[in-house]
From TrEMBL, chains A, B:
GO MF annotation, one: acetolactate synthase activity
Lineage per the UniProt record: Bacteria, Pseudomonadati, Pseudomonadota, Alphaproteobacteria, Hyphomicrobiales
Name the record gives this protein: Acetolactate synthase large subunit
Keywords carried by this UniProt record: Thiamine pyrophosphate
Transmembrane segments: none
Native organism: Aestuariivirga litoralis
Length: 534, 534
């Protein structure tokens, strides 16, 4: 066998079944291997942030890595932003990045970099990254990467073409994963003591603690101790929510909202969750959303056995069987009148089918929708923004649909971030991905209008707004989506959206509904507030 | 003044007048500065490869750097591919990349990288890169970067937010540029000796030697000595061509075509041009397109004074006044019948106005068109592929149109690479960029079908083709472009294209004409050839 075959066998033997790809010359041996058998589903994407963002969505939903095929430094670079999100979310993922033959790189052909090598890029956004020094090593790296990725790591293999075509050994067998390490008893005891000390406490969950048995256990602990059950700002992996699921509040992204939300908390206990720091520092403002004297304690990190830690904490607190507050089920009439975020939220809450996957890149349009869907039928919620890079929504919805073909994906997509990775629509059409895209259009990077308000004296002028507004020309998403093969329509009112959304849920395959939304008075008021309090 | 003001003043004082941007929170102080005065034209782009690719096009046409605003590591990463092209082309360019406040980065907010810092990315694709350690240094770096960029360097400044808002000194005055170094007399003498030794010789030009006085001087040298006048495979900066311009042949990209083209050459003299190496090494094939015993000599590199070197060489060879072979002017009837690359080439040759800018990302569709336009009215020719990263065409056409608002840009765009940066269409609409896009659609990454033929045994199957074909669904570029604000239509025949192209040339602003083209028999024959000779 050659190196490409050894690598391919390593990945397939490790149980990897899905490849998101935008290949080039240096990946052709792998394209050939993928084509010669039927062990891997390969999904072509027209730009690499779609490749990597889809792999992120796939890995979050299945807990298993997809692998990507990326073409040399430029192709990898095009996918870095979504890899950064995936890495910060600890998504299982294996990248295979082609490179020129090792002996040809010194001739400085076009793809060689001015000041470095591909691995200078790959290591920065990967937990683990290595370049194959022989064809046999390519198979070895494949086995290592797949095993490590399954523990929630982002792994990248750089594969020069001569490592593909040279003769290679079969890949080594990898030992079974040992499971994640248990946290020390002292950590559990500390968390238990905090939860019993009578202070105002939040139990903040992230990653694998946001769903399944871990979430239920954590909810019982919160109920038994009177702590608030909180979710990290950007749920990594996914959050189980909707009717019947435990009530859990997400710490708001926007700085002032986050500060207000966390005011009064005296201590926070973290389980696999990121600390609630400000995404950006602002001049003369604190860096944490927590009160200055709030104690922060991580009982278990994402790299430790959170399920076990929560079970032990529950036992220590005798929390099993505590009555958990659960979300109710939305009821009432279909919304009528003007199309608003509130009316869309109401429609989703009423219509989303059980076991749907809700993907959220609604950005500033989404708050009312996300709030309302707490009372939708039980569903899983995904948010790509763990690394702050926008554009992850459409790829994530694609990846989730590939991961879970029997489930309906409902995707909330803002216009500005949606344009980053609009190419994902084509792959959705090609793969008949079962996604209903609710395209929330406000013709602006609204978050930037808020951020501009923090630095400007007086009103914004048209020259400033030219760098935050998307209104000239307005984007016609119906036309764009149709051109990329996704049936699309435009909702003109609340009842029109309700009917279109219901119809879309009733058929298979991707569809897009464009929804023009006003910038709300509440948002403008927040702009005024931060401008006056800068 | 604050750091943002010092940086802005440094760039404006250095003569930079154009900014391509996709800003975020960390760049808001600069957005505010841009808005407070009218010294800089700011162009919003919806994805960062459009930002950087447009800056590449602008810098090539004006010889002056544009500056970019890019948002933190993810935003910079999104623009790396087109920066790599620009860097390999030695385009003048200054990037300003925002970053979180230096004191907040250790808190590991979302945008911080798993294994490094923004500068780990920036240095790899920049000739020069630095992070500001104080607000005053931000202005200093701006002055340095602008001065260095003007010599054909790609320069990147990383600017944490606290360096923007802290109090700063005005930027320092920079000494006038000293000009590029003269090449040694020995180098000119060696080139002269080679050109007189009677061997079959090519004079290979690149970058600034491809236009203006340098091109005319080189053409006289070739004419006087019997050497062939050649252009590097991907013209960096731009190539002056069309009727009345010196005849110059471009070394083909595709490996076998390049080898055939260069067979028989005994020596090549390079002036600012890249060596004709294979873009990728192939198993058991040579790495150079030149014959094994062909001598290669670089008289002047892109970092040296090519004009001066050519003038001295001309003097040594007494070449001034030699009769230069010049391109004729296309004549004849408008093409009729089926729409083909040949017919499109004929239309362009007849209709392109004098002083047009022809941007070429036609890829495998383009050979016949590019050949035919040699006899169009005199024009300048741009090709973004110096770094091998596809997707540079639409951004480059945007940047060229911003750089030269009085000139018509004609842009040849293949479908696969066009989808990489399709967002550029929106900025063209917004800026009323005077670009006619000829969209060449063959529903495939044809170059990859060729590359697959090099590695496969037997025919390609549908699973392999699924990673190289764009046919399911077919892209509707008329719908996509219209949705992004660019008027678009579809040509159904040679005469229909001719009429649509003529009409588009007669009006201002962006327009797109979709042209469905067959994969040619010649291309299929080449696939067969490489498959049999692998």
């Amino acid at each position: 066998m050659n190196g490409a075959q050894s690598l391919f066998k390593a990945l397939v033997d490790a149980g990897l079944t899905t490849c998101f790809a935008n290949p080039g010359t240096s990946e052709m041996q792998l394209v050939y291997e993928i084509g010669r058998n039927d062990k891997v589903r390969a999904v072509l994407c027209l730009q690499e942030d779609v490749v990597t963002g889809a792999a992120d969505g796939y890995g979050r939903m299945t807990g298993m890595p997809a692998f990507t095929l990326l073409h040399v430094a430029s192709g990898f670079a095009n996918g870095i932003a979504m890899l950064h999100n995936a890495g910060r979310a600890n998504t299982p993922l294996v990248n295979v990045v082609g490179a020129n033959a090792s002996y040809h790189q010194p001739n400085f052909p076009e793809h060689e970099l001015i000041n470095g090598r591909i691995t200078d890029f790959t290591r920065v956004v990967s937990h683990w990254s290595a370049e194959a020094r022989s064809a046999s090593e390519l198979g070895e790296l494949g086995a290592q990467a797949a095993a490590l990725a399954k523990t929630g790591k982002l792994c990248t293999i750089v594969a020069p073409t001569n490592r593909h075509w040279d003769e290679a050994n079969p890949p080594p067998a990898m030992p079974e994963a040992q499971g994640l390490p248990r946290v020390a008893g002292e950590a559990v005891a500390t968390a238990a003591a905090m939860l019993k000390n009578g202070r105002k406490t939040g139990l903040v969950l992230g990653n694998r603690a946001l769903h399944g048995a871990a979430l239920e256990t954590a909810a019982e602990i919160a109920a038994a101790t009177g702590a608030s059950l909180l979710a990290e700002t950007f749920a990594s992996r996914y959050l189980a929510r909707g009717a019947g699921r435990p009530v859990i509040e997400t710490i708001p992204y926007e700085f002032e909202m986050g500060v207000k939300f966390l005011s009064g908390f005296e201590q926070l206990v973290f389980v696999g969750a990121a600390f609630p720091v400000a995404t950006f520092a602002y001049r003369n403002k604190p860096m944490y959303k927590t009160p200055a004297d709030c104690a922060l304690f991580t009982m278990a990190s994402v790299s430790e056995d959170m399920d076990d830690a929560l079970a032990r904490l529950s036992q220590e607190l005798a929390a099993a069987g505590a009555k958990v507050p659960r979300n109710g089920r939305a009821a009432g009439e279909a919304p009528k009148g003007a199309l608003t975020a509130g009316s869309i939220g109401q429609s989703l809450a009423l219509l989303m089918p059980e076991n749907a996957i809700l993907v959220d890149e609604a950005a500033t349009n989404g708050m009312a929708i996300i709030e309302a869907t707490k009372q939708a039928a039980p569903h899983d919620y995904l948010n790509p923004l763990n690394g702050g890079a926008i554009g992850g929504g459409l790829p994530m919805a694609l990846g989730a649909a590939i991961a879970c073909p029997a489930r309906k994906v409902v995707h909330l997509q803002a216009d500005g971030s949606g344009m980053y990775t609009v190419q994902a629509l084509w792959s959705m059409a090609r793969e008949r991905a079962d996604v209903v895209i609710v395209l929330l259009k406000n013709d602006a990077y609204s978050i930037l209008d808020l951020e501009l308000a923090r630095v400007r004296d007086g009103a914004a002028n048209s020259r400033m707004m030219a760098l935050t507004s998307l209104g000239d020309p307005t984007l016609d998403w119906v036309s764009i989506a149709t051109g990329l093969g996704v049936p699309a329509s435009r909702a003109s009112s609340a009842e029109d959206f309700h009917a279109r959304f219901k119809a879309a849920l009733g058929s298979k395959g991707p569809q897009l509904i464009e929804c023009q939304l006003p910038i709300t008075a509440e948002w403008r008021a927040l702009e005024d507030y931060v401008q006056k309090n800068r």
